[in-house]
């Protein structure tokens, strides 16, 4: 198996380059994940840089672009990728080293949508008082809170590539919608007003790249569409 990896160390390389590695096919099982191959390659070449932590598709640290698609290497089977695999860093982010990218802007955009519950201060400060939801109200949050912030969706979004300093991106807008629809939050109107800008929510063109890239099977595009409807309704 041939594995091509786009490499770049800004401290020592004048430009990015592609390095070719080879592994013996017989040593790759049907259940071998791509991350395991990368770990084998790093034994061969300790200078190879990539992130990984939980190795279970929970932490989201090992997002990368594989054969043109964003994914998590720890839950991506190697065999179906073929005998020639091309691995690149997540698009749209500055490269720190090889497959390691600087996600600070992604985190900043996520923080800017206030991704936390804003409830009545008197009630939330009282440990004896529960802020209750009906089962139906709780069910509305399914598909919104499971995001692991791997950035696979945002880094597959052309709107985020073009305006990362203005457009929050799919992950941030998914989180924004999660708190807009939460029955316990008391700042729904303020949230909708802050998102009612051409360069924010309405920059999304719904090309579905984000939904296709999400390793958790979430649908950011649908959440953003719902957010747009709520914003328009709030205007009247």
UniProtKB/TrEMBL annotation:
<keyword id="KW-0003">3Fe-4S</keyword>
<keyword id="KW-0001">2Fe-2S</keyword>
<dbReference type="InterPro" id="IPR012675">
    <property type="entry name" value="Beta-grasp_dom_sf"/>
</dbReference>
<dbReference type="GO" id="GO:0006099">
    <property type="term" value="P:tricarboxylic acid cycle"/>
</dbReference>
<keyword id="KW-0408">Iron</keyword>
<dbReference type="InterPro" id="IPR004489">
    <property type="entry name" value="Succ_DH/fum_Rdtase_Fe-S"/>
</dbReference>
<dbReference type="InterPro" id="IPR017896">
    <property type="entry name" value="4Fe4S_Fe-S-bd"/>
</dbReference>
<dbReference type="InterPro" id="IPR025192">
    <property type="entry name" value="Succ_DH/fum_Rdtase_N"/>
</dbReference>
<dbReference type="GO" id="GO:0008177">
    <property type="term" value="F:succinate dehydrogenase (quinone) activity"/>
</dbReference>
<dbReference type="GO" id="GO:0051538">
    <property type="term" value="F:3 iron, 4 sulfur cluster binding"/>
</dbReference>
<keyword id="KW-0813">Transport</keyword>
<dbReference type="InterPro" id="IPR050573">
    <property type="entry name" value="SDH/FRD_Iron-Sulfur"/>
</dbReference>
<keyword id="KW-0004">4Fe-4S</keyword>
<keyword id="KW-0411">Iron-sulfur</keyword>
<comment type="similarity">
    <text>Belongs to the succinate dehydrogenase/fumarate reductase iron-sulfur protein family.</text>
</comment>
<dbReference type="GO" id="GO:0051539">
    <property type="term" value="F:4 iron, 4 sulfur cluster binding"/>
</dbReference>
<keyword id="KW-0249">Electron transport</keyword>
<dbReference type="Pfam" id="PF13085">
    <property type="entry name" value="Fer2_3"/>
</dbReference>
<dbReference type="InterPro" id="IPR017900">
    <property type="entry name" value="4Fe4S_Fe_S_CS"/>
</dbReference>
<comment type="pathway">
    <text>Carbohydrate metabolism; tricarboxylic acid cycle; fumarate from succinate (bacterial route): step 1/1.</text>
</comment>
<dbReference type="GO" id="GO:0022904">
    <property type="term" value="P:respiratory electron transport chain"/>
</dbReference>
<keyword id="KW-0479">Metal-binding</keyword>
<keyword id="KW-0560">Oxidoreductase</keyword>
<dbReference type="GO" id="GO:0009055">
    <property type="term" value="F:electron transfer activity"/>
</dbReference>
<feature type="domain" description="4Fe-4S ferredoxin-type">
    <location>
        <begin position="137"/>
        <end position="167"/>
    </location>
</feature>
<dbReference type="InterPro" id="IPR009051">
    <property type="entry name" value="Helical_ferredxn"/>
</dbReference>
<dbReference type="GO" id="GO:0046872">
    <property type="term" value="F:metal ion binding"/>
</dbReference>
<dbReference type="InterPro" id="IPR036010">
    <property type="entry name" value="2Fe-2S_ferredoxin-like_sf"/>
</dbReference>
<keyword id="KW-0816">Tricarboxylic acid cycle</keyword>
<dbReference type="Pfam" id="PF13534">
    <property type="entry name" value="Fer4_17"/>
</dbReference>
<protein>
    <recommendedName>
        <fullName>Succinate dehydrogenase iron-sulfur subunit</fullName>
        <ecNumber>1.3.5.1</ecNumber>
    </recommendedName>
</protein>
<dbReference type="GO" id="GO:0051537">
    <property type="term" value="F:2 iron, 2 sulfur cluster binding"/>
</dbReference>
